[in-house]
Design goal:
Elements (H helix, E strand, L loop, with lengths): L1 H20 L1 H15 L7 H9 L2 E2 L6 E2 L2 H4 L7 E2 L6 E2 L14 H16 L5 H13 L1
Antiparallel strand pairs: 1-2, 3-4
Helix pairs in contact: 2-6, 3-6
Bound molecules: heme C.
Length: about 140
């Protein structure tokens, strides 16, 4: 009986640890599927990187804007909000285990940040590409 209990506890522990490891993948997959349902092809990390480094023009005093403005070019670094000076946690999932773990949060910030940076919302394809790029960091 005791052995059975140990087997049970070990198994449930294994199952719960596996599901927490894949939580991040699940979020990214859910997002990718929704972009594909809006017509995007699979995400291309190289194109995502190009977008990340691209500069857009905006209203003064932030005439030049990019994703790097707040997150820096190296996603493993901490960022600094260009308007508020607030510290931002690194976006790289390898450094920040909370990054890309919540569908709602990613959607919220994609919407807000794309608008601020480029003047309009990102297309489903652009989001798929950027996500593929961030995921690798
Ligand atoms: C004006 C500053 C600013 C700019 C420019 C900016 N971001 Fe962000 N971004 C933020 C802030 C603030 C957060 C929220 C950070 C937090 O709560 O941990 C965030 C969060 C995110 C997240 C959510 C990550 C997560 O926790 O899952 C993504 C994805 C993201 N940004 C992508 C981008 C992309 C792509 C661009 C360029 C189009 C960009 N950001 C430009 C300020 C910015």
């Amino acid at each position: 009986m005791k052995n059975l209990l140990i087997v049970f506890i070990t198994t449930s522990f294994l199952i719960s640890s596996v599901s927490s490891v894949t939580a991040d993948e699940t979020t990214v997959n859910t997002l990718m599927k929704s972009y594909q349902s809006q017509g995007a092809k699979s995400g291309n990390a190289q194109r995502g990187e190009l977008f990340w480094n691209k500069t857009f023009s905006g209203k003064a005093p932030f005439n030049e804007r990019s994703c790097k403005s707040c997150h820096t070019a190296n996603l493993k670094n901490k960022g600094e909000h260009v308007r508020t000076g607030k510290n931002l946690k690194p976006l790289a999932p390898s450094i920040n285990s909370l990054s890309l773990t919540k569908v709602k949060k990613v959607n919220k910030w994609f919407k807000r940040n794309c608008k601020w940076t480029t003047g309009k919302e990102c297309s489903a394809q652009e989001k798929a590409d950027i996500l593929a790029f961030i995921k690798q960091q």
